[in-house]
């Protein structure tokens, strides 16, 4: 179950950015930042540095060369695949045309997340934040629009419940089962999902849990 926050900027993440091996986890994170910057201002041209992108993701500057290199890699991947256009580079500043960031909702499948969720993921310590973001987007992509949840106050919502197995999520995302179990725990701890766990189980003829 995904936990919603109605006050945040909503991001539509195209499935190709989540599942296409042409794009790394780094381009997905950079896409989230650029989409967030472009939406409220409606300005297609953005001027950013690698350090600014890191700050938007984490709320701080770590001076980690590796993370800065990851962000540069993500920007270049988006340029090479015509998601954005690089108009110029002035010292450390990328002048980017983000016109093509807008998702065509009628022609693409996408995951719906918020930038507040992205920031929570990048504030988790001692984990691969880029991979965790990819898994979260993969998980949210599986959320069913056909399942409706009714609340006690009479309200109801859809697009909040998914029921796929961990094995399927592993096959879909390319992330190992053990890592997914760990990531589910992390996402629960930071309040982004709730996992309902059955208290009973079924045994097969050989007394193995089915």
Biggest sheet descriptor: 3 strands, antiparallel
Residues in helices, as a percent range: 40-55%
Order of helices and strands: EHHEHHEEEHHEEHH
Oligomeric category: single chain
Evaluate the radius of gyration: 19 Å
Adjacency order of strands in the biggest sheet = 2-4-3
Large-scale geometry:
globular
Distance between the termini: 23 Å
Q: What's the overall average pLDDT, rounded?
A: 87
User: Uncertain runs with pLDDT below 50, 5 residues or more?
Assistant: none
What's the β-strand tally? 7
Class computed from helices, strands and strand pairing: alpha+beta
Percent strand equals: 5-15%
Number of helices: 8
Q: Could you please describe the fold and organization of this structure?
A:
Helix 2 crosses helix 4. The model has no long low-confidence stretch (mean pLDDT 87). 42% of the residues lie in helices and 14% in strands. The longest helix has 17 residues, at 25-41. It is an alpha+beta fold and 210 residues long. The radius of gyration is 19 Å and the shape is globular. The chain contains eight helices and seven strands. The two termini are 23 Å apart. The protein has a three-stranded antiparallel β-sheet with strand order 2-4-3. The chain has a two-stranded antiparallel sheet with strand order 1-5.
Keywords for this entry:
210 residues; alpha+beta; 3-stranded antiparallel β-sheet; two-stranded antiparallel sheet; 8 helices
């Amino acid at each position: 179950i995904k936990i919603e926050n109605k006050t945040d900027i909503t991001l539509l993440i195209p499935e190709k950015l989540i599942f296409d091996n042409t794009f790394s986890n780094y381009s997905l994170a950079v896409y989230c930042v650029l989409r967030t910057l472009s939406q409220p201002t409606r300005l297609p041209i953005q001027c950013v540095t690698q350090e600014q992108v890191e700050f938007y993701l984490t709320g701080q500057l770590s001076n980690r060369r590796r993370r800065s290199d990851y962000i540069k890699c993500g920007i270049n991947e988006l340029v090479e695949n015509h998601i954005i256009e690089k108009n110029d580079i002035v010292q450390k500043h990328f002048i980017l045309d983000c016109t093509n960031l807008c998702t065509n909702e009628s022609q693409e499948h996408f995951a719906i997340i918020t930038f507040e969720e992205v920031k929570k993921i990048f504030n988790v310590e001692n984990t691969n934040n880029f991979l965790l973001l990819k898994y979260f987007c993969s998980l949210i992509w599986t959320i069913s629009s056909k399942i409706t949840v009714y609340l006690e106050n009479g309200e109801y919502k859809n697009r909040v419940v998914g029921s796929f197995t961990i094995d399927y999520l592993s096959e879909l995302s390319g992330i190992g089962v053990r890592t997914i179990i760990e990531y589910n725990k992390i996402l629960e701890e930071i309040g982004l999902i709730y996992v309902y766990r059955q208290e009973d189980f079924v045994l097969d003829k050989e007394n193995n849990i089915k």
